[in-house]
Amino acid sequence: MDNPNAQTPFLQLHSDAFRAIVEELSDHTKVLLSQTCRSIRHMLQKEKIVPALSAPEHVRLLVHLSRGNPDVWVCATCKKQHPVTEGDLWGDNRFSSCPNRKFSRRREGMCRINYARVQLALKYSRFAIDNSRIDSHLKRLIRPEGSVLRVKHRHNLAEFTSSSRPRVIDGRFLVKYTWKYRLHSGSYTPSKMPSMMVCDHQRLLRPAGGVVWGEERKQLFRTVLQAMLDDRNGVEYCGSCPFCPTDFTVRSFDNRMRIDAWKDFGPEDGPSNPTWKSHSLSEAQRTPKHRGSVRRLYYEIY
Ligand SMILES: [Zn+2]
Ligand SMILES: [Zn+2]
């Protein structure tokens, strides 16, 4: 019997046009395409287009193949699927179902973001509307977190609170972080800057820290300095990181300071996705200008 798929317009294309279209695809997508039907696989093999996948591309393929299965997640360390357990819903490597527990992880303040959490939250956001079990899983993965810390800062009592609030917007995993600092007496001055970071590339160091940063890594430092020196009435000063999709704002009020940051951890893909990788210090490369766009996207209504 003739293959009915052979008559589809896509397969009727001239081989040059077919090749031009398919070569635009990433390697793992070419392999996915080759699995859709025998006719396409035959065309791809005839044109010698089906690639051998690198390890990161193999993981991306597994992530895309598991999109319809809410009971598994793909581990980049083991390069295979793991069944989802209660521990995975905490998004913390200590409770992970992975026996190796070494996969890529982000830790900002009290919010631990590992890739399993991002992957599952994005997957569950597609299922949650029709499924109450998945909806409760999703709520745990995007739960707000917070902490209060009282510390002695240069003989001065200080209170430090941090919170994080993840959201899934337009198929991307975003997190808003807030850090609030309050001195019990006196006011914040440049010499009393707290030691903190909004991403791997932008951090505040006390002047005695001694670490030299290039100008592009001083965006947060300069913004805080501006807020401290120019105004103390809570006027908002904005900045963004040139290396990763992180926007931040700083407000200074005499003995208090507030820093907010909005971060985009990317779409449902493998950990080799450029957005996810850009948050790592070792992957620091200039990203396309995004100033303010992550913050705006975070407040979009879908
Ligand atoms: Zn694993
Ligand atoms: Zn950054």
CA-based shape: elongated
Structural class, from secondary structure content?
A: alpha+beta
What is the residue-averaged pLDDT? Answer: 84
Oligomer: single chain
Q: Which spans of ≥5 residues are poorly predicted at pLDDT below 50?
A: 107-111
CA-to-CA gap between the ends? 47 Å
Helix content: 25-40%
| Largest β sheet strand count, sense and barrel closure | 6 strands, antiparallel
Distinct small-molecule ligands in the complex? zinc ion
What is the helix/strand order?
A: HHHHHEEEEHHEEEEEHEEEHH
Strand line-up in the sheet with most strands: 5-6-7-12-11-10
Q: What's the structural domain tally?
A: 3
Strand tally is 12
Percentage of residues in DSSP E strands: 25-35%
Cα gyration radius (Å): 23 Å
Given the structure, what is the number of helices? Answer: 10
Report on the structure:
This is F-box domain-containing protein. Residues 264-289 are annotated as: Disordered. Residues 272-285 have a biased composition (Polar residues). It is a single chain. This protein is α+β, with helices and mostly antiparallel strands and 302 residues long. The protein folds into 3 domains: 4-46, no CATH class; 55-141, no CATH class; 145-298, no CATH class. It is built from 10 helices and 12 strands. The chain has helices at 9-12, 15-22, 27-34, 38-46, 55-65, 115-127, 132-141, 219-230, 274-277, 293-298; strands at 72-75, 80-83, 105-108, 111-114, 145-153, 156-169, 172-183, 196-197, 203-204, 237-240, 246-253, 256-267. Strands 5-6-7-12-11-10 form a 6-stranded antiparallel sheet. Strand 10 and strand 11 (246-253) form a beta hairpin. The longest helix is centred in the middle third of the chain and has 13 residues, at 115-127. Residues 107-111 have low confidence and may be disordered. It binds zinc ion (2 copies).
